[in-house]
Amino acid sequence: MKKIQWIIVLVAIMIIVLFSGRSLTTTLFGESAPKFVRLEPGNIGVPYERKMVWKTQSSFADSIIKNWSERPIAENMLSGKGSAPRILLAMFFAKHHLDEANKILMKNTVWGVSGSSWMLNKKGDYDFTATIYTTILYLFGDQPDVLYPETKKYLLDVLLYEDGNKFRYTAPKTLGLVNETENHLLMTEGSRYLKNRWIQLHGNKEGYFDNEKNGMESKLLALLEEMKTAGLYEFNSNPYVGYTITALLNLEAFASEKIREEARNVLDYMNFCYALGSYQLKHFPPMRRRYEKASFTSLVTDYHSIFFKSWLSYSEIGNYNKDVRNGDVHALMGSIMPYRPADKAVELLFNKGDGYFVRLGHGSEASPEIYSAGKNYLISAGGVNRGKRSLIVAKPITLFLNDLTTELSGTFHLAGPGTDFMEWNNTGVCRNFAVAEGPVFVPPGYLPVAQKDNWNIYQSRDSLLIAVYSTHYLGILTVHEKQNPQELVDRLFASNSDPEKLRSQFLFPGGLMIEYDVNSPKDKWVIRFIDGNSVNRNYDKWPLINME
Fold first, then answer.
1. Helix boundaries (H) for 379-516
2. Could you tell me the residue range of the domain that residue 105 belongs to?
3. How many helices (H) and strands (E) does the chain have?
């Protein structure tokens, strides 16, 4: 009978995989990722240098920890992935009601299994809980006055049930047909590895727990190397990037020196990409997973931004947006764990120097990230959806300025055609330039300081000039420094007076000619030629980081 049931499951999975898009597969299986394919590294390496002096105390972090430690834990919070493990983590860290914290932890049960939840594995996702239990074990397991000996034993023997070397690359109960993604791989196998390591470090020398002998060390190193050289499948994911970072923070803090270094390198790669694609913690990039998050319009509260806000609270930088609404779940881990970003990533958050133009590759069937930065601004390309199976949310092309705007509605942005992000190819960004098949949105409060025909010039508080050409079928935005508004609009109009030519080419006055196709297919960069020179439009083959 059991054999027949598995045959039915196998047939069902094969039908779904063969005849359904990845979106349906993901709905049923929770997650699905392709095999990693190494990309060329590009022309700039990830910076790792650390000379910054970080403070040991943070009032921001203290407030986050205090807030979490004082939250009540109801009985129904002890089963299922929820906030109870993090409340306990904060209680132990703050030394807050330790008797109660130990009693509550002893009441917790193994409520599910690790790995993705889906139709036949409805009690998946236990790894979300196990990851925080692992943090508790390592931070307090050698402090018997905080984590009582009997509590530690229960945590280690019962709640952290994954050990040994059963490294699972695929989602549970999918017969190996559906690959797991980074966040589950790192949470499940990172927690398994760290339990093994704890047991071995505390005197048990059995080969079963020896990560070198049982293969866990090499498998985790290979996974981290793949993420570092192929990029993330769940790039900029809302919400999964937060859990990927959480699992990496555990490895960076508690693993062997080899794995600590590789986990730090992956974090540094992720944080460098974030720094290149954000300005003053405003971040609105294309992302993979989930479609229901496409309507989110906050520029400052994605989970990656939340981690940076926690880290920055230990720096001398004080004047930055500290809003962590809906993301304090990650502010807690960022506040507690010892990792700090590399110096260059911190610098780039607020200081773009003389500016740059950078393209980030994410491999086949993905969306690139494209950014053009100047001293007081950043143009963020919205990317492209590659069909429903891609799970990619494209965003508008967005201009971040040196202001206090925190919502998309407060920015200059453009997208098109229409309002359905699945129809967009918003990769039309070049240095100081953006174009899309749709109008430019001008935020409230901005009035043109110069006008001519369909060209309008707006001025930022830093005296930047934002030139906008906008019709229902074409939007162009360019950024200029140290120019007279009326002279600029006259020169722009003189250089681009033919609206038919403007559909496919733009000439900077006295400068570059950019040719583009706003109707480009979804596997091609909208930009076609720069000053008559063809460009590599196949972003499936772009390197990880290429800067000009």
1. 485-495, 499-502
2. 2-42+72-278
3. 17, 21
